[in-house]
Amino acid sequence: MFRHSIHFTRTLGNFRPEPPPAHASYKRPTNPAPITTISTMDIPLFASTQFELLAAEQGAEIAEQTSLITSLPPVALQRHGLAVLNLVLSAQRTGLGGRTVLELEPDSALTTDGKLPSHGLRSGDIVRIEEQPGGAAKKKEKTELKEKGVEGVVHRVFESRLVIAIGKDDDMGVEALVTSGKRLWAVKMSNEVTWRRMVKCMETLKDMGEKGTGSELTRVLFGKSSPAPPEDLKGEVKFLDEGLNDSQKRAVEFALGIRDIALIHGPPGTGKTQTLLEIIRQFTSQTPPKRVLVCGPSNISVDNIVLRLPPDLPIVRLGHPARLLPRVLAKSLDALTQTSEAGEIVKDVRQELDTLMSKLVIRGKNRIRGKERKEGWEQVRHLRGEFRWREGKATRDLVTSSKVVLSTLHGAGGYQLRGEKFDVVIIDEGSQALEAQCWIPLLMSTGVSKLILAGDHLQLPPTVKSNAKAPKVSQPKEKRFHIPTSLEDTLFSRLLNLHGPGIKRLLNVQYRMHENIMHFPSKYLYNSELVADPSVAKRLLSDLPHVEVNENTVLPVLFMDTQGGDFPEAASDDESSSKKPSSSSQSNPLEAALTINYVRSLIAAGVQDTEIAVITPYNGQLGLLTSALRPDYPGLELGSVDGFQGREKEAIIFSLVRSNDKREAGFLREGRRLNVAMTRARRHLCVIGDAETVKHAGGYLAGWLKWVEEGGEVRYPDVADVLQV
Question: Structure pTM?
């Protein structure tokens, strides 16, 4: 086994941090800071800056995609996960929301097993379906084919077919595809709706700032007014969840008692979602009940809340059915509309639509032609209009009757919420959302007087592809707050800087990590305020019933130091970070071999592959690890740091990759990325890297190396032993 392949091991004692006080009696070192307004902000200038940054970001996204689509042939696009070729239309029907649903399968003339080729399309992706251009098609011909195509959302992906829900106003495009009988392809597109909604919000903000209008909440969000002091509810709230700890209870009381804004700071594993669930339930239990709009930057962040809300609470989940978790669909607006009384009439119209459409798609000698065909499509448009009117009324009634409405941030800009009144907006994962996104639910709804933002500004910010930075604008001394110059500057962080720590409550008891794994992040980023709950503080891999006790499974933290130049990095082709797509990604073959051996040693000791994750900042390294480990361990999770935020595993192996004479550390300088990587493990964290190189990253990583060398376990693997395995 792997543990015998390392002969040069040095143990610097068994690290034992000072035991933290038990969480039940833990008292925060200081009282919450008073709420003040540190500065104010010019709203039109803010909005104008956001315009520039959003335009640059959209441009970067479009340029990246356009570059691939225009420079690569269709086969290469499929290989890159951006297209599926050689499709034919196999079925058509009316789906949820009155959308035309097309089923596409591989052309039987080009496949022997009926399966789709390897591709990268997933449920929720926006695609364009077009007649497939020939290999020798000229640019003009390709443009003409594109004009005949339709856009839709991938609803389901099966081994042998794609199910695509088409946009609501594309009957002519559908007819062209149906009648062509030609081979088709599906190409992944960018989502322009999101950008339009953010820009619209910034236009509204700019107009409000110039006219001096806007709600009191808006004034507070820009420092024009100070947050009102919170009502002291300590001891007055009857908590519905008896399992809340003291810090969660204080956060709930604060959110209920504040008049305008509250930040819930939830470090890794501290039960942020559990706290938000209690806040939602408390608001809806008041007399009269408050109406709550709950949003998040991603569908998964919203669905996680939907799944944990009480089943008897009247809620509705907005969003395209293709993008929702299957277990959430029953609470979706589309599904609830079908089961409502008004939905029965909608069903009748849908059946009539499907019957008519089935006649119009017939090809060959039985195909409807001429005037009859034209009249048929006119009737389809008439029925679709009636369908949407009836469905629109049914959806409005459902939304209005729901105490809690849940949606992604950009989904809150849809017609379903136009004119709807909410008392409270709650945004989960607020530190991962663009600020312009956060303004969509605040400006598209009416009557909102309270905003609750939950997140952790010390983990990863929103993913931004553009490197654009707006120039800093000098302002009068009384306006000391700088206009954000990057889309990575979030509303969560801005409000914390604007009004100070008095608007924030920290959740300090974490339920994920062994206390040794937690110790350094808590000390470095969270002012040593995090406390490991007794249920997790001492647990190790060796405590799992199926795992043997050995030198690896009894360790909560291990660093394998490859210093000495024997494990050098090698350049690869592309960059893991979406921010710098043109720079080189890195790989380190020998470090990858060391990582692979260590994974195998844990599995040999009884740790299940589903209990382990291997993460790395670089796609080059990820490719090496995936190709070697995936065939033998299908349950093993491998991924980038960015893709693992919010996740956890019993064991995490983190490959740092960088090892070079220039001491270049790249991504390893980004403390928030490292914080995510090192706080995913429950029982065991193994970090593998070259200390001589990565210590030059400074900050978080340099501090962690010093911490582990002073009191943790450090091993020095021999490259010869790695090569022998």
Answer: 0.82
